[in-house]
Amino acid sequence: MTETLDYIRQRTEDKTPSIGMILGSGLNEFADNCIQDAITIPYSDIPGFPQSTAPGHKGNLIMGSTEGKSVVCMQGRFHKYEGYGMKEVTATIRLMADLGIDTFIVTNASGGINPAFNAGDLMLITDHVNNIGDNPLIGPMEPGTVRFPDMSIAYDLDLREKAEAAATNAGVKLHKGVYLANPGPSFETPAEIRAYASLGIDTVGMSTVPEVIYARSRGIRVLGISLISNKAAGLSGQLLTEEEVFEAANAAKDSISGLMQEILKTI
Ligand code: HPA
């Protein structure tokens, strides 16, 4: 990873961001419009870095500032369903941690299981369930990580409070709930969704959990926001498509950008 880190340091004149963000499916807009003095580096330029193959994931690192804070944004992430191992899946957060961030804002698109959630709604992630069947910390310990990180409060309480206040200020409705990550890439069956509902799960997706586990192992505080792109399988009477995910993200881009900016003012 030294080669990767050295390259980014040199391309960004040793900038030291304090906040790192991963922008998931269709959520790239924020970084395109809201980052000042942006330095954009395509993942394909970064030595030792995986490539985004997932649709709707641009594959750029953007360094700059917003609301007076120094930020690094990852437009696009890596998923297990692309065939990547957990090391590659966490390459984004690993690099941001090496760059020195202390705060990690993670976003994703997910299917709403909670009947109160509709396509286009946003949810503050309060907790997660790892159903990916893997963990990025398996293997020899990396310097700076904790062997058995506590996950009791994986999503920072203070950041959650600030995000809720920011949502009120931005006039954006923000649900709260538990996110479950599956490996994908098939969507869930209605029976699986009924099972998750009975366990108290609110949304389901195919990402985020590995990055959050890694961030916690480095002591980085985490804020998670999920865009409900569709009602989960069997709940809407409609079949699920990947286009629906992008349409919902596109429709919600203003509320997401507004919320993000308001959050960045206060954290
Ligand atoms: N299931 C899993 N992942 C998803 C969904 C879903 O319904 N929507 C967006 N990502």
Features:
single chain; 267 residues; alpha/beta; Rossmann fold; 5-stranded mixed beta barrel; globular; binds hypoxanthine
What can be said about this structure in brief?
The protein is α/β, with parallel strands linked by helices and 267 residues long. It has helices at residues 2-11, 29-34, 86-89, 91-99, 157-170, 190-198, 209-217, 242-251, 253-266; strands spanning 19-23, 36-42, 60-66, 69-75, 103-112, 122-130, 174-181, 203-205, 221-231. The protein has a single domain, classed as Nucleoside phosphorylase domain (Rossmann fold).
Give an account of the 3D structure.
The chain is α/β, with parallel strands linked by helices and 267 residues long. The chain has a single domain, classed as Rossmann fold (3-Layer(aba) Sandwich), CATH 3.40.50. It has helices at 2-11, 29-34, 86-89, 91-99, 157-170, 190-198, 209-217, 242-251, 253-266, and strands at residues 19-23, 36-42, 60-66, 69-75, 103-112, 122-130, 174-181, 203-205, 221-231. A five-stranded mixed beta barrel has the order 5-8-7-6-9. The mean pLDDT is 93. Hypoxanthine is lined by residues 109-111, 187-188, 204-206, 229-230, 232, 240, 245.
